[in-house]
Each structure stands twice: as structure tokens, then as C-alpha cells.
Write a structure and sequence with these properties.
By secondary structure, the chain is α+β, with helices and mostly antiparallel strands. It has two helices and seven strands. The longest helix has 17 residues.
């Protein structure tokens, strides 16, 4: 069996191109961008007495204006599981919106309260919270200002 120049070229040309492509570029290529230095500030943790926002900036302390559950109707309760649930989804499907309360397992600590915006029309999709892959061990209570509010809730 003889090797023709055409076959030899077909075998060696891709190998030669790969070898040339792997060579570093000259001064005019992308290597010059790598030689420029970029200044990066050192990592610094905030102190306990140091303000998170710079002085003189307006802001609101959300903990001083916690939402209230007064006047709301309890629509559903997802009980605390025996083992941490892997995720959950709650979606408002009414114009009134929802208030989602996340308790600890014993309901002894201050709950986390999430307010979900209502939909533009009853039955349509409104605000939602999806915590796939975020374990939660406590109960989930869902409230609304409308006792007939349509909503979707699922945990897994």
C-alpha cells in the first residue's frame, strides 16, 4: 500500500494547524491584555458597629416596619415535616396577594414574613416564592386579606 501525497497532506494539515493555533500570540495579540495589571481592593469584613450604607444615604429599616397579620385570613398551613423538606412553591392567583409566614419547627422564634404581590386579575399568575433546593424545617402558613383568594402551594 502506498501513501499518496494527497493522503499525507490530509493527515498532516489538521495536525499542523492545531500546533500553530496553540502557539502564544505576539505583542499585538491577546497576550498584551494579560500583561496589564488590575487593582483589586482587599477583602474587608464589616465591623459590628459599622453601618452597611454610607453616611448620608437614605434608607429604610425594614425591621422597624414589620408587616402585621391583623385583618388577614389564614388560607392554608403546610405543617412542619419530620425531615427537612427539599423545597416549596407558593403563588398568589388573586388580586389581594398573599402573606407567607415561615415558622421554625416549634414556632418559638420570630417568623419570617414574605409578602407576595397579587395578580392583575383573579385566577391569573401573581407574585410567587419558589425555594427549590432550600431546605425548611418549620411550618408554612399562608394568609390573604381576601378569604376567597385563589393560590397555589406545594412542598416536596
Amino acid at each position: 500500500m502506498t501513501i499518496t501525497p494527497h493522503r499525507l497532506r490530509a493527515v498532516l494539515l489538521p495536525a499542523a494547524l492545531a500546533a500553530v493555533a496553540s502557539l502564544p500570540l505576539g505583542v499585538g495579540g491577546s497576550a498584551s491584555a494579560q500583561s496589564k495589571s488590575v487593582e483589586v481592593p482587599a477583602y474587608r469584613q464589616l465591623g459590628a458597629s459599622e453601618a452597611l450604607a454610607s453616611p448620608g444615604q437614605n434608607g429604610a429599616d425594614a425591621s422597624a416596619n414589620a408587616p402585621s397579620l391583623s385583618g388577614l385570613s389564614l388560607l392554608a398551613t403546610i405543617p412542619a415535616p419530620a425531615t427537612p423538606r427539599l423545597g416549596y412553591l407558593v403563588q398568589a392567583q388573586c388580586t389581594a396577594g398573599l402573606t407567607v409566614v415561615l415558622d421554625d419547627q416549634g414556632a418559638t422564634l420570630t417568623p419570617t414574613i414574605l409578602v407576595l404581590q397579587g395578580s392583575a386579575a383573579n385566577g391569573a399568575q401573581g407574585g410567587s416564592v419558589s425555594m427549590a433546593g432550600m431546605p425548611h424545617t418549620g411550618r408554612i402558613r399562608i394568609y390573604s386579606s381576601s378569604s376567597s383568594c385563589q393560590m397555589a402551594a406545594r412542598s416536596w
